[in-house]
Amino acid sequence: MAKTLYQKLLDSHTVIELDEQNVLLYADLHIMNEYTSPQAFSGLREAGRGVPVPGQHLAVVDHIIPTHPVRFRIIEDPSSALQASNLAKNCQAHNIVLFDTNDALQGIEHVIAPELGMIRPGMVVLCGDSHTTTYGAFGALGFGIGTSEVEHVLATQTLVYRLAKNMRIRIDGLLPQGSSAKDLIMYVISCIGAQGARGYTVEFQGPAIAALSVEARMTLCNMTVEAGARGALIAPDDKVTQYVLERAPDINAVAALADWEGLYSDDEAIFEAEHHFDASTVAPYVTWGTSPDQAVAINARIPDLAEEPSARTAAQQALRYTGLHSGMAIEGIPVQRVFIGSCTNARIEDLRVVAALVKGRKVAASVRAMVVPGSGAVRRQAEQEGIAQVLMESGFEWRQPGCSMCLAMNDDFLAPGERCASTTNRNFEGRQGRGGITHLMSPAMAAAAALAGYITDVRKLEQSHV
Amino acid sequence: MSDHANISGIGAAIPAPNLDTDQIMPKQFLRGIDKAGLDQGLLYDLRYDAQHQLRPEFVLNRLAYRGAAIIVGGSNFGCGSSREHAVWGLQQFGIKAVIAPSFGEIFYSNAMNNRLLLVVLEQADVARIMADVADPLSSHIEIDVASMTIKSRSVVASFVLSARHHRMFLEGLDMIGASLSYQHHITAFQQRHWQARPWLKNVAHLTRARLDTSKS
Which domains are present in chain A? Predict the structure, then answer.
């Protein structure tokens, strides 16, 4: 019978079928952070349970870590410091690999796991973080879980998994100059809505996807969760297998490649929902509201209020919060802050794009602009390539890696009323600081906003650069 | 009769769609290593203004809705971050059930794992229940979990829980214990899996060992 990639991954990881809707799913890799794992470890302790397969878990301090550009990092906030020391204690007790505060390889969980070669096609990867969908870029089934489930995975190496429906999003054409994977996924979310993929694992297919780099695919799959998806998948190709084999030289390439060749959806396989889009008309996208689906192309205006009452109320509330109104152009809105970072957009390719645009130019005097690289490795590479120098000369702060102002759990946050051009994934009310206003966009668009002091079309800047 | 078989009490409407878990439990309340004190953080920015003063107009702050046991919410309730703190906070605040047209997927699993009842109803039914509870005199809602029916002043509706969730809710299963009863299946699966795909075995340990060796 013809199968989708999702069905193949389920088949290869189903220990037993529990009932019609649930399977016991085997986890190849489980990633933990300092804030969604403590209660899981406590639960294990209370029940007297252990971790039977410690080699398939890893932990990293990323959400609460300060990003000040100092060589040795100290977590000043006492409760955050306790979360970090508690994680170290738990990892030590259970023989779990930890990338701790001052580890040279520390970084955002969804940045370091792939860059260190730990994400492999055909894997099931779980993590107490919703952006675990990132790993679909490798043809791996990744999704976020709660803390009770973290405990379950620690104790059993499996998860009681409720089966998802399967959606295909085919994207024809190629992205035009100036638009990126970030713009593409923001465009898709604005079309299908913040719950357009709720209940589904989404497989992306088509020429626009094939043309994306591995890092760009991570951006795409990362943000698919903002459409409500339970997973995102892209069938692995040569780009992906090469990326993995370069970073994981211990893999027997012949055997692995033979296995990975089968990781695609069969032609006759049936998806329960389908969408088609064309990438060639996707302009740079910017959010105007407080949900990731409230976004428009940079040359468009904030839409009229919807007719449907609940959508209308939601849009009114969002506009009240962001201080904007229907019919207003998104271009030209002043920003006081620019944040380039997060598991969505803090990899080396993102930083290269930013450096190329800002080289020889200055961040507007009215703007405080930060670059928080996704990992220690990204930071070092950017320094070796001269990117860090370019950014600092332009007036960007060059920070240490972490989740930082994506969710503002550390001391990087917006003051009330501050408006930020941000490469992150969520523009929720208060997400970057109470009363702070987030406009999601691509790294190139955030760079352009930093230079201009307002939201602007990066394509104009690119033209003037030539 | 079990506390979990019948849920009744005051319903409070929070109609916004896409009420994300960042709003349900803001970041400053996520710094603990236990579950304590999350009732303080629940819906903080809606309950308190920027000066940390109670917003008297917010439904959960109104005298008539003190002690509310049921929230009637908008679609995609609990979307966004996977933080289970959102569920723990709702329960610590005294919420026993949330009724909405749809829920964020991770939130749904988190709620079930903690026996916070989530009731999915048609948008029109949710709207009618919201209208009912908007009047404090008709804010009472009754939910019979065994028969999966819900009653407000003007709505009598049935809802669906999967057989597994229904049982979990009524009986309070030890999920980990139940899965561990399949330990021999897990072990056998794992042996076959590692044999077929040795590059998936102990990836974290082996990667760390390789990186540490190349560093020294």
Answer: 5-162 (3.30.499.10), 165-281 (3.40.1060.10), 286-465 (3.30.499.10)
CA–CA distance from A456 to each of A299, A444, A461, B118 (Å)? 9, 10, 9, 43
**Could you give the C-alpha distances from A368 to A298, A355, A364, in angstroms and in order?**
22, 16, 8
- Amino acid occupying residue B185: H
Check CB contact under 8 Å for A38 and B201.
no
Q: Where in chain B are all domains bearing CATH 3.20.19.10?
A: 6-173
| CB atoms A55 and B106 under 8 Å | no
User: Three-class SS of residue B174?
Assistant: coil
- Name the CATH architecture for the domain at B6-173: Alpha-Beta Barrel (3.20)
CB A8 within 8 A of CB A145: no
Low-confidence ranges of chain A (pLDDT < 70): 463-466
Coil/strand/helix, residue B44? helix
Report which DSSP code applies to A90: H
- The pTM assigned to this predicted structure is 0.98
Nearest to A19 among B87, B163, B179 (CB): B163
Burial of A360 (0-12, 13-18, 19+ CB in 10 A): exposed
pLDDT of residue B3: 74
ipTM of the complex: 0.97
Which among A141, A157, A293 is the top mutation candidate for probing chain B, defined by the most B β-carbons within 10 Å of its own β-carbon? A157
